[in-house]
Amino acid sequence: MSRRGSRHDAAVAASLFQLLKRERIRRQRYLTRGAARHDVFDYIERFYNPTRKHTNNGTLSPVDYEGRELNLKKAGI
């Protein structure tokens, strides 16, 4: 992220929260705040971070990108 108050950072955060609400929160009914926190954390760590494709790394998921970088390092490139 860039410096404080950057409109680009706000757009990224807004996009994440919109996606999170659409794909997860509106589909669930939570009994406690703790259950909601746990579910959101689980969603981010298990799905959003490792599998979601990102345009800034050639539309690869973070897991695929890391694997490619590791293979390039092993090959000495």
Automatic annotation (TrEMBL):
Where do the Integrase catalytic domain residues begin and end? Answer: 15-70
User: Mind telling me which InterPro entries this protein's record contains?
Assistant: Integrase_cat-core, Transposase_IS3/IS150/IS904
Q: Which GO terms describe its biological process?
A: DNA integration
Q: What is one Pfam family matched by this protein?
A: rve_2
Q: Which domain of life is it from?
A: Bacteria
Report the leader peptide range: none
- Which PANTHER family does this one have? TRANSPOSASE INSF FOR INSERTION SEQUENCE IS3B-RELATED, TRANSPOSASE INSO FOR INSERTION SEQUENCE ELEMENT IS911B-RELATED
Q: What is this protein called?
A: Integrase core domain-containing protein
Q: Which organism is it from?
A: Loktanella salsilacus
